[in-house]
Amino acid sequence: MTVAVELFRSVPRYLAARAVGERAPGLIAGTLAPLRLVNRDEPVPPAEGWGRVTPRLAGICGSDLATISGQTSFYFSPLVSMPFVPGHEVVGDLYDDVEDLPAGTRVVLAPVLACAARGLPPCPSCAEGATGRCDRVTVGHVSPGLQTGYCADTGGGWSGMLVAHRSQLHPVPDTVTDERAVLVEPLACAIHAALRGRPEPGASVLVVGAGTVGILTLLALREFTEAGTIVVVAKHRGQRDLALRFGATEVVGPRDAVSAVRRSSRAFRLQPERGGAFLLGGVDVAVECAGTRRSLDLALRTTRAGGRVVLAGLPVAGADLTPVWFRELEVVGVYASGIESVNGDRRSAFELALSLAAEVDLDSLLGATYPLASWREAIDHAMSSGRLGTPKVAFDPREG
Ligand SMILES: [Zn+2]
Predict the structure, then answer these.
(1) Quick check: 74 and 66 in contact, CB under 8 A?
(2) How far is the CA of 201 from the centre of ligand 1 (A)?
(3) Which residues contact 264 (CB under 8 A, 6 or more apart)?
(4) Which of 47, 113, 337, 373 could be joined to 192 by an S-S link, Cβ 3.0–4.6 Å?
(5) How far apart are CA 282 and CA 302, in angstroms?
(6) Which residues neighbour 66 within 8 Å (Cβ) at sequence distance 6 or greater?
(7) Could you read off the pLDDT of 329-388 as tens digits, one per residue?
(8) 43: cis peptide before it, omega within 30°?
């Protein structure tokens, strides 16, 4: 048996949580969350090439919070299997030998459950190394689940034990601490986001949101692109300080963002009869990293005609797409990561993230860790992490 925080299907709780939304995080963590602490049977490796992993740290992601609080689209419902143990940002130890990796190897998890893990011949996307685009995430050796942390069979990071396939495992060098290793999965996604943004040398970029996704995307833009001016929109003081430290040219609050982009890009500002101001002119590339309607509207309204808007946050309904039409914007989704093209080289985003995590001081990003038994406090903290200036909150399942 293993202790786990489990997400179970409860339509009334889902709808209640959705109604309360993010306005009262205490209520979500307290009584409405479709979560419970359970003793589960340990997950069993479903086939050759799989092994057990005992998590050391497992992060709480914005997508987890959106799932718990009922903010995600019903689109996801056929892509998960219930009940599942959340947690896809994981550093842990191999409990079994898995092919070339001996038991005891410290690993980080690439969570996508793509063709290789499912025992299937590669689909066209997997064959190209774009495992995030895999078409087979509902079939094969394990139940439907776009990732570990959304699949009933694999377990997840918010527990004492999960199972993973060799294709998901990346050994962690000794130079990377657990506290940094738990940030490698979001960092790999951020590298993918920065590269999908494809800013030209000297291009102006707007990063909307300065939580973990925003800060790591900013870091990746500075490391892997030649972007010029990068304006970051941050809500809270702690986020402002972090954004400056990680390479922002200018950090502004949400209310000042349109004016700041207008000044830096010499655009024209127009004020509609209702709704937020927008620009004629604006940044070359905007990256939406907050996953709110307001932040997506801001990105769409401040990007120049023909520019690119990258959706790095989990998208939400209700944004006004008029600027996509009128400004002929290119809207680019980013999900997970894969084999990336960097200056003509093909490199795994996880390998890039692991080397970057060894070099760059990411220690201030992990704000707190909690034992599984304190899951309510952990979720509550994660819901308020922006305001508290502690971007990432994680579970330490070893604490019980
Ligand atoms: Zn595939």
Answers:
(1) no
(2) 33
(3) 204, 229, 231, 250
(4) 337
(5) 5
(6) 72, 291, 314
(7) 999 999 999 999 998 899 999 999 999 999 999 999 999 999 999 999 999 999 998 888
(8) no
* Structure tokens belonging to residue 246: 């990680």
pLDDT, tens digit, 9 for 90 and up, residues 27-80: 555 566 789 999 999 999 999 999 999 999 999 999 999 888 888 888 888 999
CB atoms within 10 A of CB 180: 24
Give the DSSP H or E segment for 197. helix 184-197
| pLDDT for residue 16 | 60
Ligand 1: distance of its center to the CA of 122 in Å?
A: 5
Structure tokens that stand for 177 in this block: 């601490």
Identify the DSSP state of 147.
B
% pLDDT > 90, the chain: 85
Q: How far apart are CA 89 and CA 55, in angstroms?
A: 10
Distance CA 255, CA 233 (A): 9
Span 105-164, pLDDT tens digits? 999 999 999 999 999 999 999 999 999 999 999 999 999 999 999 999 999 999 999 999
Q: How far is the centre of ligand 1, averaged over its atoms, from the C-alpha of 141 (Å)?
A: 13
Q: Which residues surround ligand 1, an ion (CB under 5 A)?
A: 114-115, 123, 126, 134, 136
